[in-house]
Amino acid sequence: MNVEDHILRAQSSLLWDHPFFGVLMLQMKKVDATDDPEIDTMAVDGRHLFYHAPFVLGLKKDELMFVLAHEVMHNAFEHHIRRQHRKPGRWNKACDYAINGELVECKVGRMPQRGLLEERFTGLSAEEIYRILDDENNSDDSDEGQGDVGGCGGTKDGCAPHDEAAKAELRAEMQTQIRQAAMTAKSAQQGNLPAGIQRIIDELLTPKVNWRAVLRRFIDKSITRDFSWIRPNRRLLPLGYITPGTVSDGVSHIVIAVDTSGSIDGDILRDFAAEINGAFGEGAVDRLTVIYADAKVHNVQEFEIGDELTLDPTGGGGTAFSDTFRKINEKYPDARATIYLTDMYVSDFGDEPPHPVLWGVYGRTQDFNQINPPFGETINISI
Fold this sequence. Notes:
The chain is an alpha/beta fold. The chain has helices spanning about 5-15, 20-25, 55, 60-75, 90-105, 125-135, 165-190, 195-205, 210-220, 265-280, 320-330; strands at about 30, 40-45, 50, 155, 225-230, 245-250, 255-260, 285-295, 295-305, 335-340, 355-360, 375-380.
């Protein structure tokens, strides 16, 4: 049997037994990448399925069914546009762990022997799993390359990491394909999808909240501002545009509290700081106070307009917010808002301050909807 026929047989079985995955696989253009040294199993980039012929022919049909479903899940979860600057090999491992638990639960084919599966990772996002793997293997770069260490196929970047237009196009295409596959699967199974498949579809089609937009709206809402030519918009000056910037009504002071009890993803810190720096550059904020704390406050930094905000948390211990809010109330009565970056594993929230609070929660994708602090607004921060 040649490789094309082997793929076709497995794809047909997917269509019959698990139409959601089968329909998604139909959308993929198959490309023989046997001569590509970077692909030793399979890989997808959102539009193509690249395969290494000897690998495909070495799989039994039920194993190939699993691998094909695995590959379309890389696309459905947008792993091809979410890697950013993470190590490709370690990113692929994290993605494999995020996918394989779901497919095993849904009883899709049979996972190959080399497949990566750990119960502790089931239900976590690839970013959360990557952070755990990075913490556990910080000095080990053996999985830094492109190879598929999980043996179930990997993912290739669908576009450049910072090409937001291309990402949006790929994301829109994938959402359309997911909706079509879900409709076909429901029709084929008389509207009674297996619970695991239905949960995956619901997760994929749930609108994603743009935490950056929520963060900026929160800052804008907390600060009373006006426009002035005295302070031009710094973001547009490099482009040759001189437009009025914003000036605050009085000193606009925001407190950023960073929970140092857990391990924070460096990419999250950089993205978070970039958004705050944007507010700085536009004149939305005049002064920032950064508080680093676990159960107690350990360090405080002050920033003013013109400074570049960098977040560098150190420490680690128990978690309590009462000391942080006590310090804010005593030392910074002029604060207009507090933004708390935390994993929210805490029971001591302390007293509510006399200004708005935004909880930037990271590492809690699986149970974010169950988080209900006694005060403040929550956003799920992920990248």
